[in-house]
Structures are given as structure tokens and as C-alpha cells.
Amino acid sequence: QNELHKINTKLKLVSGNYYYLYEKKSNKNSDSFKYFSLISNEEWNNTSKFNDTFLGKYFYDFDKQFIKVTN
Q: How confident is the model at residue 25 (pLDDT cuts 50, 70, 90)?
């Protein structure tokens, strides 16, 4: 939970919504960073330029906790 809450995001996290976690690797070095998106992995798969790694789907509950969704 703490790791997920430390991820910098430009999104306003709203309880009751699903968020998709990705990891982006830098082209210049071996650094990477994680970020949340509103766009699912299935939607990104239609874009050939998208190379980020999908890490999971999370439900942001009303207690401000991330719950990993498996399906």
C-alpha cells in the first residue's frame, strides 16, 4: 500500500474508480518509474508505439486503499 501511495501521479485519485499501473523504462539509462493511468492494458494494446509494462489493475476504494483486481 505504501509503495502505491508514493507513486507520483498527475491524476486526481477518486474513490470508486479503477486505475491501471504501468512501468516506463527510460531510453537513456536503466532507470524506470511507475505511474497510474485511466487507460486499460487492452486499450493500449491497440497502439504499436506503447512499450510500457503493465503491472496490474487496481480499485481505489472508499478507504483510500488500492485493491489489486485479478480477472
A: confident
- Cα dihedral sign for 41, 14, 2, 6? positive
Closest CA to 54 of 66, 37, 29: 37
Q: Which residues are registered as beta bridge partners of 34?
A: 23
Query: Among all chains, which residue has been given the C-alpha cell 512499450?
Result: 51
Can you tell me the distance from the alpha carbon of 15 to that of 28, in angstroms, rounded to the nearest whole number? Answer: 36
Contact 4, 66 (CB under 8 A): yes
Closest to 26 (Cα-Cα) out of 52, 44, 47: 52
Rg (CA), the chain: 13
- Supply the pTM of this predicted model: 0.84
